[in-house]
Amino acid sequence: MSDVLWQGKYLEVRRDGTWEFAARVGGIGAAVILATTTAGEIVLVEQLRRAFGRPVIELPAGLIGDDGDFDPAIAAARELAEETGFTATEWTPIGDFATSAGMSSETFTLFRARGLTRSGSGGGVDGEDITVHVVPLAEVPAWLDIARTRGCVIDSRLIVALGLI
Fold first, then answer.
1. Is the whole-model pTM more than 0.85?
2. In CATH, what number is assigned to the domain containing residue 101?
3. Which residues of the chain are modeled with pLDDT < 50?
């Protein structure tokens, strides 16, 4: 059993023996969405992440359970619509994965979303200020290189998901 050293609204720091790690309060996880269009494009988001103090390029994602509903599929559909303005007709759960096993107990459920329809503008909620990018799959490596030169951090979950396409 680990001891809680500090707790905020969504995160806590725990100690188990001499090992310290971050955890989500209440076992909240995340839903991550690999959304692709019929035209062979991937839907990405860019937003300022306070941990880095600069923008991060990532797959659309959000917390599971922060609204009281712990269904990963519901969270995935909600986050895709809120962040990107897209809805999907086909959802495939890929599996559960560790975010950063060496320092966090957080997990995420990865979903594949197809049959996309633009239903809104996206951009997130409550000051998230998300920019949506729809990038042809063949251009992703060059596009990410350009994003890096702009100072963006690339989320590793994106790189992993590209291997599943």
1. yes
2. 3.90.79.10
3. none
